[in-house]
Design goal:
Pfam families: CBS (PF00571), cNMP_binding (PF00027), DUF294 (PF03445), DUF294_C (PF10335). The chain is an alpha+beta fold and 660 residues long. The protein is built from 24 helices and 22 strands.
Amino acid sequence: MSHPLPAFRPAGVSWKAPPDPIRRRFFHDRPPRDPAAPQRSPPVQHATPPASPDFDFGRPPFDLLTEGQRTALAGALDIALHPRGAVILSREEPTDSLFVVLRGSVQERRGGEVAVVHGPSDRFGLQALYGTAGGDGTGSRRFIAAEDCVCHLIPRAALEALAGENPEFGSAILGDFAQRMRDLAAVRSNREMAALTMARIRQAHLHPPLFVDAAASLRDAADAMRRNRASSVLVRGEDGRSGILTGTDLRDLVVLDGRPVADPVGPLARYGLVTLDRDDLLFNALVLMTKHAVRRLVVTENGAIVGLLGQSDLLAVLSNHSQVIGLQVEHATDPADLRRASRSIVELIRTLHATGVKVAFIADLVTELNRRIFRKLFELLAPPDLLANSCLIVMGSEGRGEQLLKTDQDNGLILRDGFDCPDLPRIAADFTRHLVEFGYPPCPGNIMVSNPDWTRSLAGYKDALFNWVHRPDEAAQMNLAIFYDAAPVAGDATLLADAKNYLLSRLQDNQMFFTQFARPALSFDTPSGLFAALFERRRAEPVDIKKAGIFPIVHGVRALALERHRAETNTVERIQVLAELGALDRKMAADLVEAFTILSTIRLKARVDLPEEGPEAEPVIDNLVHPDQLSKLDRDQFKDCLALVKSFKELIAHHFRLNH
């Protein structure tokens, strides 16, 4: 007997005729809806085929099933056919089956945006199957056919029977779900943090500004604070500037320094206020408080002061996060205190990443915390004369402000010419040793203060820079690139500024030099064909995301910036300046910033998702990304980013004549 085909049959879909009599059913065969209820696409027809040869039993975790279990699953499968645009599953629609895509693709939308795209052999609907659809705090969740598609449906009863019969399979397919539920619980527990990072300052409680004139006395200021229950006053300076005087300042001035209470506050106030606009992010307030080690910020609107944001307002939300880490660093009395603060940064990164904070914001905050730790450690180890006559610098990703999780140390020390510290070798060795204990691995290239080549006088650095520019070999160009990214951390920052000015002054319009300097941007292959393996159901080889994607952008942009004698160190800032100067096409610049951000995010996610081995375990330093383990969205973005990197490398090769 011949069987009619369903009305809709996507091109390329094989169809096995079901046995007589034909059994058809509607998946959404439920009582009539309330007219006011949300409407969805018309019901989709399903038929039950015999054992389906199209089901991919080679795909994990179904490859764990025995032959008999595969036969039982194939016999229980249904097939669902969905035209393009059909709503397959929504928050309002519970289900009794797990979906596995056979042909086509399905968009998972959250809050109106495409979060994930599911392709052949991908599965979805497990949360709806167990009654948790939409319970992740992401708002409305819907699965929509991005094109004509066919899905296998695994009934809940069959799934649970196989899970009970085959514990390894059950752990794999339901364990993923359990882990997701644990992750969602963690997200819910951090909702206040998430709210903070997305909130504006105007949503926070601001303390009304309390002004006194510069001619007011210390007694007047103290009286104003008492009457208004304030912990500070703003001082109207005679030159039109505004300053601040806190209760702590009053205590120190009057009680400790013995100032007469009749003295005017104008000369004693601190000017150069740290301010933010009322429409700025609360997260930026957090970064500024951490950076400047202050406990309150002045908030402005249209240039006028409208209030003060206090540290306690943020600490109420961040009771165990960045501000506390900053306070631990500030009050550290020995390296052991700093070690505890440093170890807390990893959990802070995990929390911020889990709550959806952008990588650029995480990098800003981590950069400030790391530098405060380095500065405090150096201050604990170095005598005052060394602090006054040297500049501690960080280089590489730390110098560019792009380090997230802890990577190799890249640091050095510039000494004032003529200054000598007999105990310097021991201090430098102790500095490096303590950083290793904090979780910052030693640099394989030995670019650390414990190496005398990176702890030298300013004149010594200038000699090295001269040789790196005029006698370039591979090592010299690497050293020059690393130093070009340097940023000051402790001591006298003018020493680094002097060295960098010397470097830029020595650069000439020497095409050969810049050609050689830019060449490492092409050193590593950027693969383009590995993603075909995913669609051919072959295992894609892991990709070193740093070598294939991030480094070519960083070094290519660095070469363009050095050619233009620019002083910026951050990669995104360099890209933006190069676009303003016309050295980069604006569209290419915008695409590079986006690609750099996406690649950094994928790299961070791959590393923070690695399992921990203990309460203080650091994530493994591993730049390998497995494309077949990425979500569909990340995989598509990764592919697009690598394609852009290849185009950028071609631009660099043409600009610096690397193919000649």
